[in-house]
User: What shape does this take?
Amino acid sequence: MTPEIVTIIAQQQGFKRRGRANLVRQLSDVLQLINLQKSNFSDDWYVNFALWPKALGEPDRIAEHLFPLRGRIEDIVGHPGEASEKDLDRFFDAIDARFSTLESLKSAMSRGELSGLYVKAELKALLS
Assistant: This one.
């Protein structure tokens, strides 16, 4: 999957470029981040997703590794292995449904849909 295709589709979904590797979408309850990461070992690219609930305040900076919820596109769509361009529609549908409000995030947590994602303790406490 090329970063150009991800960027075009993300921008169509309301994401705005922030730096060379990040796309950000501000929603009422959350800040969503898509990070494009080049593999160190091949020409492959990874699509990382991160989320910052505004109830935790504002992030110090826009950096995927600082966000309290993180995962790769494969984790979000439940597709083991490398994601393909076909997975992008499912990815955007999933982040709209499960990661767009604090309530949808709480519901996703209660249904176990956050397993496989990195969730910091402070976010788990907020969602409990």
Remarks:
- Residues 3-127 form one domain.
